[in-house]
Amino acid sequence: PQLHRDGEASAAGAEAEGEALDRAFQAAIAHEPTWRTLTLPVPAGPARESIDVRLSTGARGQPSLARTVHVQASTGRILSETGFADGSPGRRARSFLRFAHTGEYWGVVGQTVAGLVSLASVVLVWTGLALALRRLARALQRRRGSAHPAVAEPSPVAGASAPANPPRRRSRERALR
Predict the structure, then answer these.
(1) CA 70 to chain centre
(2) Does residue 120 belong to any structural domain of this protein?
(3) Domain hosting residue 134, numbered range
(4) Alpha carbon distance 92, 86 (integer Å)
(5) What is the reported pLDDT for 177?
(6) Which of 4, 30, 145, 153 lies 20 to 30 Å (CA to CA) from residue 40?
(7) In a domain, 28, yes or no
(8) Rounded distance, CA 87 to CA 152, Å?
């Protein structure tokens, strides 16, 4: 829409912009009749010479099945078309990874796997925190207990046999880990 100085939109400008958007919409759906998703941007500024309409024939999250049709605003003629394969390798990788990391690229199965991985991550964080707190509590308990004098162990009597498996003692360095 065209704006006047006082900020009010011109009715003629808004109508012309609406007709241009309608022409772009009609040209895009005639070009790709099997579309599932269509994105038609509504301009906020002055009228443009061409309108970019994004069409997708796949489900959401499949950028390889989407393309952009550039339509001349005044006539509704298709000027050009760009798709996933026309992008740079970096753009294609970003588009793929954006939907692959949430599982959307593979549909319901991919989203289910991504959800289970997220749940497993929560369980791993919970168990890690539980183990850390448990170790901290044991270390604090040992530190409080070390203030008491140590009890001497009885020495073996001469001629008595030593136990087959003497009890193992942990060194102080190992206990503090």
Answers:
(1) 29
(2) yes
(3) 101-145
(4) 9
(5) 55
(6) 4
(7) yes
(8) 78
For the beta carbon of residue 49, count every other beta carbon within 10 angstroms.
Answer: 10
**Which residue did the predictor score with more confidence, 107 or 127?**
127
Residues 15 and 82 in one domain: yes
**Statement to judge: residues 32 and 54 lie in one domain:** yes
Task: Indicate the pTM of the whole model.
Answer: 0.52
Question: Residue 46, SS3?
Answer: coil
Tell me: do 111 and 65 sit in the same domain.
no
Calpha distance 12→64 (Å, rounded): 39
Asked whether residue 32 falls in the same domain as residue 68, the answer is yes
Question: What per-residue confidence (pLDDT) applies to 95?
Answer: 85
pLDDT tens per residue across span 146-167? 655 555 566 666 665 655 666 6
For 7-28, give one letter per residue: b (16+ CB within 10 A) or e.
Answer: eeeeeeeeebbeebbebbbebb
For residue 12, the model assigns a pLDDT of: 55
Nearest to 21 by CA among 51, 44, 49, 45: 51
Q: For residue 84, give both structure tokens.
A: 């996933």
Average pLDDT over residues 78-83: 90
Residue type, 171: S
Q: Are residues 62 and 18 in the same domain?
A: yes
Classify residue 162: in a domain, yes or no. Answer: no
Indicate if 67 and 27 belong to the same structural domain: yes
The pair of three-digit structure tokens given for residue 122, joined into one six-digit string: 């929560």
Measured distance between the N- and C-terminal CA atoms of the chain, rounded to whole angstroms: 70
- Residues 119-126: contacts with CB within 8 Å, 24+ apart? none
Q: What is the mean pLDDT of the chain?
A: 80
